[in-house]
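User: Before I run my own analysis I want an independent prediction to cross-check against. Here's the chain; please return only the structure tokens and, at the end, one sentence I can use as a sanity check.
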Amino acid sequence: LQFAVSGGGLVQPGASLCLSCAASGDTLDYFAVGWFRHPPGKALEGVSFISSSDGITYYGDSVKGRFTISRDNAKSTVYLQMTSLTPEDTAVYYCAAARNLHNIVVMTPDYWGQGTQVTVSS
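Assistant: Structure tokens:
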């Protein structure tokens, strides 16, 4: 499984961005997918996860109510819609996939995508 990650950029506080994680090499249907981020000078953190079959979602406390994860299995793509962005959201964002949601939760996925930089600054 390989990913093409896109959608990052430089935006002002309060703006929105939508990250895309398009998979190839295998069907994404059977994988749980997560978005993670690595803020400058801080540890990698889980942002949002979505299960493979029943669409169960999880959001970190810092993004709850502002970010929305979704998946389009027909397009083998997972999205992270981010709204009301703040400078604290500045980070390199990664998508990752695992056949077992547990592996996403404990940040040991089977596959990682490349990172995309999100910078929120005025």
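Sanity check: The CA atoms of residues 38 and 44 lie 4 Å apart.
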